[in-house]
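**Paired protein data**
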Amino acid sequence: MSEKQQTVLKTNSQIPFDSISEYDSDQDYLKLIRKISAGIIEGGDNENQIHNINDLRRLRKYHLELFTATFSNLLPSFIANLMKSSKVEVCFNALTLVSEIFSFYCENVINNWIPDLLPIIVQSSTSKFGLLSKQSFHALINLANNMYYQETLDTLLEIILENDEVTSDNACETLLLFFSTISENVLLNSFLWYDACEYIYKMLQSGNNTTKENAKIIMYHLEIKFNIDYPFFLSFFENDDQRKFVNECMNGYQNDKIFTNLEIFLKQNS
């Protein structure tokens, strides 16, 4: 698909957030939720699937509690039938909804969705279709700026550990942005670091050079972030042998790897 075709696709298939209107006063929400659920679970043509996504976007904008309950039940079908669809238009609109979900922090079940949604978002950021990769970057930036959940930290580290170079790099760049948006005190004291440190330790032991380098970059940024509290952070590694190994890996390390994907996207869309 050419860039021109993608531009036409974007113009024709996406409703801007500001243009999503409120429901009529006599809307039957039970009937609406049944319709959305049946449509997403059963599938259908592109137009119907996009219409279902836009119904979810509309529900989220104006009736967040109803949306949360509905989306929680639909998450497996939403992922299988929409986010993993072979149809670019459907994937693009599904990514749009997820980007909007990540657009502000709230204390509900969003944290439970992140382990399922985030790996697909990061994978989509490597898509050959520029339209999908750009919308994925929107979602990743929103996540880094707003999704201050334990699941965000753990899932990004798991993706960095278990994926290929480009996917791992995009997840690592997202994680560094996530670190930069949170105060040192909150990052150190409001997150459970034991599992996260186990991921980092496994990365440093990896035979994959990209994985190992990304682990060093993470530790380098955390050392700068935590500053005088960095020795306390190291206490979250399981034992003295792990801490010694980490210190040996980081001895004299200087970060010379330059990430570009999110940085370029941010500059182009600022």
Summary: The radius of gyration is 20 Å. Residues 115-270 form a domain with the Leucine-rich Repeat Variant fold (CATH 1.25.10). The chain has two domains: 12-101, 115-270. The CA atoms of residues 83 and 91 lie 5 Å apart.
